[in-house]
UniProtKB/TrEMBL annotation:
It holds the Pfam family dCMP_cyt_deam_1. GO terms for molecular function: catalytic activity. This is Diaminohydroxyphosphoribosylaminopyrimidine deaminase. Residues 11-134 form the CMP/dCMP-type deaminase domain.
Length: 155
């Protein structure tokens, strides 16, 4: 069997990342937080869980919402997030980076590196340092910035 390198960006990755960006449009706008969408997809292409910021709680992050629906992930699943997973939180004790690693996810694909608006984020680096494969897709970042145009610094 010819298996793709986990560090290689695939057409499926682009599809699922676009779907995560679409989910971010469901977020109630906030002047103090990004609108983010996330999907967890297993190795066979089945969506295991989805989430978006402020889905069930005004402080909930997209990755947190998706992970709450799935718990521990068995096998080779990928989390797709429109924004780089956070590495620091003011509203919760654990960052999305910590939650992703604790759930067993070792492949992360995101579109836009978090700008220094609310926190200094280094989620991608922390994930890589912990052994996760991290793929950034900056070509899709303009779509995420557009969703977050309610934040003056994202325009």
């Amino acid at each position: 069997m010819n298996v793709a390198d986990p560090g290689e960006l695939t057409e499926a990755d682009l599809h699922w990342l676009r779907q995560a960006i679409e989910l971010s449009r469901r977020c109630p706008p906030s002047s103090t937080a990004f609108s983010v969408g996330a999907l967890i997809v297993d190795a066979d292409g089945t969506v295991v869980a989805d989430g978006w910021s402020r889905r069930d709680d005004p402080h909930e992050h997209a990755e947190e919402a998706a992970l709450a629906r799935v718990g521990t992930v068995a096998g080779a699943a990928t989390i797709y997030s429109s924004l780089e997973p956070c590495s620091a939180r003011a509203s919760r004790p654990r960052s999305c980076t910590e939650l992703i690693l604790a759930a067993g996810l070792r492949r992360v694909v995101f579109a836009w590196r978090e700008p220094e608006i609310f926190v200094d984020c280094d989620g991608a680096e922390r994930l890589r340092d912990a052994g996760a494969t991290v793929i950034e897709v900056p070509s899709l970042a303009p779509l995420v910035r557009k969703v977050n145009a309610h934040l003056a610094s994202c325009r």
